[in-house]
Amino acid sequence: MPVRPLSRLSRSDLADLNAFRAVERLKSFTKAAVELGITTSALSHAIRNLETRLGVRLLNRTSRTVAATEAGASLAMRLNVGFREIGEALDEINRLRDRPVGRLRLNILSDSARLIMARHLPKFLNQFPDVEVEISVDDRMVDIVSEGFDAGIRFGGTVPEDLVAINLGEELKWVAVASPHYLYRRPIPITPEDLRSHACIQLRTGQGTIYKWEFRKGEEERVIDVPGKVCVSETELAIELALASAGIAYCLEDRVATYLKSGSLRVILPEWSPVEPAMQLYYPGHRRIPQGLPELINLLREEIEAETVLKNSPV
């Protein structure tokens, strides 16, 4: 098949070049396909067609790795500059509109998905109908820049210092909780060390380690490597198991506020419940802020502040 130079770019050429950029940046066909919203086979086919049209191999592929060739790395570097210019030009046009338009890609914790996005994103979507939002719920600490996200939400104190971070709400209280039925069958813990003789629902963090429960009373601190017959990787399941009297769970107080109010769960060692920094929305400050992100930040801060005032007001 003769090589066709891409001196006149078609819409298909631009799409294939953008697809190549995604694969080269993420070093993965699977991740790039998810980001682009296409199948892995379709993406692989697009890259093969691009290489055929150019007459040069752009990517070296093995069963486990994907890496750019010398020609591919050079092309990716030039394309990144060109596509960034295109994006900024479109942003300038969009800024002339009365309201933001575009697509936001967010990477957030499961706790922030339940406590922040599920509560407040619907209002944002109603106010800004021309903004699309894609959310990846992931408890791993990912590099939002290299993986193509516009912003993320993580616990305060865990955000890299070179990123812009904005507090969302107040400090967070962590609690150990259990059902009345579980506590009826077991002696109630008096000290954090007493948890070592209980059935605790262990939690594996996004970094792959089993979380050690932290407690604080005044100047005293305890870090307990709790035992347990079950270990989960998400808070929601831990809470459901606690409700089913399978053991003691450790989570944010806000995640179980409804169950505490109804009496379905009770806080254990309340005087030892630690308070940690608020969640933070963060984004890279070295590049242009995408359309819709300032509006999302303002709405979340306003809604969370109003929610906090209501929660703290006397009944």
Provide a descriptive summary of the structure in words.
With 315 residues, this protein is of the alpha+beta class. The protein has nine helices and 15 strands. Helix 1 (11-26) packs across helix 2, helix 1 crosses helix 3 (40-54) and helix 5 crosses helix 9 (293-312). It holds the Pfam family HTH_1. Keywords: DNA-binding, Transcription, Transcription regulation. Residues 13-69 form the HTH lysR-type domain. InterPro entries: LysR-type_TF_proteobact-type, LysR_HTH_N, LysR_subst-bd, WH-like_DNA-bd_sf, WH_DNA-bd_sf.
Counting helices, strands and paired strands, the structural category is alpha+beta
Number of helices: 9
Number of strands: 15
**Shape assignment:** elongated
Report the sheet-strand fraction.
15-25%
Spatially, the strands of the biggest sheet line up as 4-3-5-15-6
Describe the main β-sheet briefly: 5 strands, mixed
**Overall radius of gyration:** 24 Å
Helicity, in percent?
Answer: 25-40%
Low-confidence stretches: none
Which series of helices and strands comes N to C? HHHEEHEHEEEEHEEEEHEHEEEH
User: How widely separated are the two ends?
Assistant: 77 Å
Mean pLDDT, rounded to whole units?
89
Keywords: DNA-binding, Transcription, Transcription regulation
InterPro entries: LysR-type_TF_proteobact-type (IPR058163), LysR_HTH_N (IPR000847), LysR_subst-bd (IPR005119), WH-like_DNA-bd_sf (IPR036388), WH_DNA-bd_sf (IPR036390)
Domain HTH lysR-type: 13-69
Organism: Yersinia mollaretii (strain ATCC 43969 / DSM 18520 / CIP 103324 / CNY 7263 / WAIP 204)
